[in-house]
């Protein structure tokens, strides 16, 4: 397919050349020849770049290579399945570990664990015309067939993320008088948003960010700490893979905060996108629909999972809803059954309020997509942000629309997204505090709610990243 960027570009500021946004906006060096204010860059159909030299010849330019640390989370390449340049984590890495296991001496093998996100499951269900439960069982069968030992569901770890978010909000709301930056609490489950916050408004935004780990990273703690202990294994002898709806999750898994120095291992070793799972199925010549379903695995031996479960409140995890209902009950003694959203500028910026005696006592919002995020940040900077809590997600329409989800060439994006949303909402929901095994794990694994151990394993911290000096001129 011809690159949409085929042709000749005329550049007048040539210290750095910025590639097309679908690739990477990290700058590439282009020689600035004396006496010339203009250089010509020719782009071939295959996406190669050539600098047109003064004598009329061409010189091939090196394509920008990006490591996870360099990434600007520009949402160009990071959320685009076709052109992503991230190489450190891929389905090929998973394959390498599985292949190495086949020839490894006993005792040298890795225990391979895959944790699947409910958003990826819904996307695969739409692709194969299956219901979510069959998809979960057939995916389990597929992964086990290729050599994976356990397949878990990150809805389980999301129970902890939601409960910790509820607790954190109530604490910060009660303590707001003592801290100017206690509120609003800005949700932290989306690494695209976190990366943006750290790299563009670091020290200003960080105090507002929820410290709760995302479901992926809570799953990392569960697998490398709780499950490793159950299996009498060290964390480094488990290879933990997650299946996620976006590339940004790879950045999240690579954060130094989730790396164990003691064992030289990550909580999540490898993140593969929904699209990469589809590729893996194709490479193995397997159609998910034709596989015999397998029973679902459960992290807790005392809990047997017959079918997947989910949470209320939409495809991005339901943070707003869970925190809102809990806060209304805890702080004002009001039981809220149904949440009514009020759309603001667009359907990706909505708010919810709780009134008591004619006064707004809780004011929450959901802001999805960078356009709305920028708007929110402006409000905050001008001191005109009325919200107590904001569920912030980098993707328009949220996680079901993540850049790593499957596309269908013959189905318009909107129609496909609706189908994925319907499938996602078909899954039985439960309140996180009632989910089987959660209270037991708080007791036995975390030594109680609010313990030092719960703080260490379920929360994280953020770091302002100094702006790289470049002539990128990116306006966030
Ligand atoms: S909103 Fe998009 S970038 Fe953020 S976690 Fe969800 S899928 Fe990933």
UniProtKB/TrEMBL annotation:
GO biological process terms on file:
hematopoietic progenitor cell differentiation; intracellular oxygen homeostasis; iron-sulfur cluster assembly; regulation of gene expression; response to hypoxia
| GO cellular component annotations of the record | cytosolic [4Fe-4S] assembly targeting complex
Q: Enumerate the spans annotated as Iron hydrogenase small subunit domain.
A: 410-466
This protein's source sits in the domain of life called Eukaryota
**By its UniProt entry, which Pfam families does this protein fall under?**
Fe_hyd_lg_C, Fe_hyd_SSU
Q: Which SMART domains match?
A: Fe_hyd_SSU
Q: Which InterPro entries match?
A: Cytosolic_Fe-S_CAF (IPR050340), Fe_hydrogenase (IPR009016), Fe_hydrogenase_lsu_C (IPR004108), Fe_hydrogenase_ssu (IPR003149)
Instruction: Tell me its family.
Output: Belongs to the NARF family.
Q: Which PANTHER family match?
A: NITRATE, FORMATE, IRON DEHYDROGENASE
Protein name (Swiss-Prot/TrEMBL): Cytosolic iron-sulfur assembly component 3
